[in-house]
Amino acid sequence: MQFEFFKSPAPRVATEEFLSVNGARVPLRFVGNPRARRYVLRLRPDGTARVTVPRRGSVAEARRFVERNREWLAQQLKRLATLPARPQGWHAGQEILFRGELVKLEAGANAAGGFIQFADVSIPVTDATADVRTRVQKFLWNLAAQELPPRVFELAALLQLTVRRVTVRNQKSRWGSCSRRATISLNWRLIQTPASVRDYIILHELMHLREMNHSARFWREVEKVCPDYETAERWLKKHSSLLQ
């Protein structure tokens, strides 16, 4: 991933256009982030290039940043093309991640109707042979909303930090965030990760209560409370295609 600093006004709303890379028409989405200090270019699994525009940044400078990293983007597009396509729907027989493990969705029926089962979970559904992604994800989101906030408060107390509120959301491009008002927001998909990865993301956000940036000093704080954080980062990168 490439980074660079700029100093012009940041956009307030997301804008989108297209970029031609080796003959491919790549959707290019610019998203302003007042907390960001660097331009960041990412290629999402759906083939969209997402550019974070930092505070005091501009779309014009972001375009030049993308142009300088066109070769990196071409390499990532080539890599993406070699990955096996993942089905959009979730059906019985398919594997999903749950608490860091691949588990198979299994269809069943009982007197009350159909159900989908995985690990120790059983979810009633109208038709267990249909696409159950929406139903299963709703269950996982609700489970995350029950489990993640208590864990945040538990870790915050151990670190003598004050968290005022925790929300669990359907974030598309980040695992968590921390506001200056001490509100922690987490992605419900953390319920699909191992406990160590979940805790790393929580600790990462908690450290923003000490450093509201991603400076070297911030990462030193992260390393103090989570010495093995790079292992968690690698796990997330390796399994990113399964966490969509």
Q: On the 0-100 scale, what is the average pLDDT? A: 87
CATH superfamily of the largest domain: Metalloproteases ("zincins"), catalytic domain
CATH class of the largest domain: Alpha Beta
Question: What is the chain-wise order of helices and strands?
Answer: EEEEHHEEEEEHEEEHHH
Estimate percent helicity.
Answer: 25-40%
List the strand order in the largest sheet: 1-2-4-3
Tally of domains: 3
CATH topology of the largest domain: Zincin-like
- Helix count from the secondary structure assignment: 6
Overall morphology: globular
Strand content: 25-35%
Structural class of the secondary elements? Answer: alpha+beta
User: Ranges with pLDDT <50 over ≥5 residues?
Assistant: 1-13
| Measured distance between first and last alpha carbons | 20 Å
Rg value: 20 Å
Write up what this structure looks like.
With 244 residues, the protein is α+β, with helices and mostly antiparallel strands. It has 3 domains: 15-82, no CATH class; 95-131, no CATH class; 136-242, Zincin-like (2-Layer Sandwich). The protein contains 6 helices and 12 strands. The protein has helices at residues 59-68, 70-82, 133-158, 195-207, 216-225, 229-238; strands at residues 15-21, 24-32, 40-43, 49-53, 95-98, 101-104, 106-110, 113-118, 121-125, 165-169, 176-178, 183-187. The protein has a 4-stranded mixed β-sheet with strand order 1-2-4-3. Strands 7-8-9 form a 3-stranded antiparallel β-sheet, with helices on one face. The protein is globular.
